[in-house]
Each structure stands twice: as C-alpha cells, then as structure tokens.
Amino acid sequence: MxxxxxxxxxxxxxxxxxxxxxxxxISGNPLSKINVDDLVGxxxxxxxxxxxxxxxxxxxxxxxxxxxxxTNYEISNYLSKFKVKTHAMHIGGRTKFxxxxxxxxxxxxxxxxxxxxSMIYGGxxxxxxxxxxxxxxxxxxxxxxxxxxxxLEDENIDVAFLPIGGNYTMDIDDAVKACDFIKAKxxxxxxxxxxxxxxxxxxIFKNKASSxxxxxxxxxxxxx
Length: 224
Ligand code: NI
Ligand code: MN
What we know:
The protein is α/β, with parallel strands linked by helices.
C-alpha cells in the first residue's frame, strides 16, 4: 500500500486498482503541489466532515473520475444534488466494499458546509478506518482528543494520520496522548502549518510520541 500526503489532511491511498483520496483539499490548499487534474484514476473519495478544507475539491474530482464518495449521510445527501455518486455511512458503521472495509469513527468537531451566506448542516464529523489488503489506515479527520480513541487500539492500526496543529483540533501534546491510546504501528502528523493559525513543529511531535512517527513532506509517500 502506498500512502501519499498531499498537504493539510489530504491523503492518497493506492493499492492495485484502488485509488482512494481522503479529504481532497487541493485547489484552495496553499501547501498543495498538484492540481486537481493531476489526480487521475481516483476510484473513491472519503470525506470526514463538511468544512471547506476537507470537502475541498470533492465534487470536481468525483465528477472527473466517476469516483464514489464515501461520507456521512448528511454530506452524502448534499453531494447527491451535484450528481456525484455517494455511499452514505455513519459513525460506528463498518461496510465491506470491493477494495476492502471502511469503518467510520467519531470526531470531536463540527461539520457545517459553508455556502455563500449560509451554513448547511453537515451531520456529525468523523474519521475513517480504511482496510485494504490487510493493511489498516486510520484518518482521524479534524478532532479534539477523545478517550474513545482508546477503542481504536483493538483495530490494530498500521498507519494513523493525526492532526497536530491545534486551534481547531488536537495540538502536539494531545496528539501524543492519542498515540498512547491508538497504539498504531506508524503515526503521520497532519493538519498543521497550512496557515498561521495551525502552526506546529512535527519534529517535536515525533520526539514526544510513543509511536513511531513518520513526517511526510508534501507529495511524499510511505509504503506499508
Ligand atoms: Ni474542520
Ligand atoms: Mn480542518
């Protein structure tokens, strides 16, 4: 399995014919080094919550690639109005797909979808445990520290992507505690240094964390 960090919380998971994107914030992402049209052959898109830096370019990429969007019921309902193929799930549910299994996990956060002057209800925010060919990736989405993460220990996560930038999510010290709960084989920090509000030094996180931390640069990949 190849995991490529696209900056902020955007992640590309590749395994054989499966090409899954999580939270594809590309065109508006100051850290992004690619364009939306560089993403070809995308089969699935996972959206953790409705905020613009996660929903991102989902509609555009889903349409170009005929990708199936897996997200919560409310965002799924919103996207279906844009003629995007969706599969609605919700927190706690685990579903078998042709590529593997997906479980939606909870996140302590918001999920409203901003549209001009209004905020559309985006259901509860979440995260995903995505299992493909026996390898499990946990993408936490945006979340504060929650003791529920302790339950993820039983999932035997291979790679966990955790936010460390603070302000909207866990900061480094809380993400360090999350590592103790989850006990993933490898942890990759995300959701930091995209702007001046979520500033964090991933090296400090790496030094403090109980898990093996791999710091991925933008467009850098990890093979597991
Ligand atoms: Ni958010
Ligand atoms: Mn965010």
